[in-house]
Fold this sequence. Notes:
Blueprint: H1 33-46, H2 51-65, E1 70-72, E2 81-83, E3 87-91, H3 99-105, H4 107-117, H5 120-127, E4 143-144, H6 149-158, E5 163-169, H7 170-176, H8 186-195, E6 199-201, E7 210-212, E8 217-223, H9 225-233, H10 240-243, E9 246-248, H11 264-271
Amino acid sequence: MRPERVPEVDSEFVDITRGEEAVPPFPTRMLPGCYRDFVEDVADRQQLPPDLVAIPVLVAAATMIGRNVHIAAKLQDTKWRERACLWGGIIGPSGVGKTDPMREALEPLSHLNAELHRHARQVAWEAADKGKRGPKPPREAVMTNDSTVEGLTVLMEGNPRGLLLYRDELSGFLDGLNQYHPGGNDRSFYLEAYSGGQWSKTRADDKRDAFLDDMYLNILGGIQPDVFRKRFKDAPQDGMLPRFGLLAHPVYGPRPFVDVRPNFTAIKPTARPW
């Protein structure tokens, strides 16, 4: 294993975009046992900081927990409840190796997504006689790459448990806010998707009206340091950045060549997320 570095931190607040020695390492010891073993195995095999695996694992776990599980912040006043809604991002230069560990961490969700896509409900509808078909059933999914409000709304209507929006490059997602419909409210849609609550969209064509009883969306992706600074430096102070509660810009050191078998004992408990 790569030895854990324990830096001296002069301040409680650290500019994580600098990627300097002041940034503390991800505390894998805080993860549940099976997740810790998996994260450390992937980080060791790929010789990359564990942040690149741990953050996607946590976001994926939150997605599988979904919107229906809440934690009460107070013992008596149970009206204040929070869901496991997590937005995560990995900051790092282009070519440093952000994508592969994220994909390996999301592999169970990818397999589940493929199974849901082939779900018998959809297959049965397509196989039925066209004259006997009812309304087309909504596509089941746990993860998507479609960051348009229109596409997400359709998916979220059919999957009220919640979704993960995964973008390999978050810059495309950030650039797309309000780009598809100039003057639109795409940004507020995402802000509300984190907070939860009802959301509706009324259009001139009532067949395209949309209603979500309780919004829930996790977000994950990578982004380059310069792009991160540019996108958020002069961005509206509307709470978009604070919602990315799992952001990391770890120290990227040398990557010696390592060729060892994966720890399948560590992989097995995380292989099926449901």
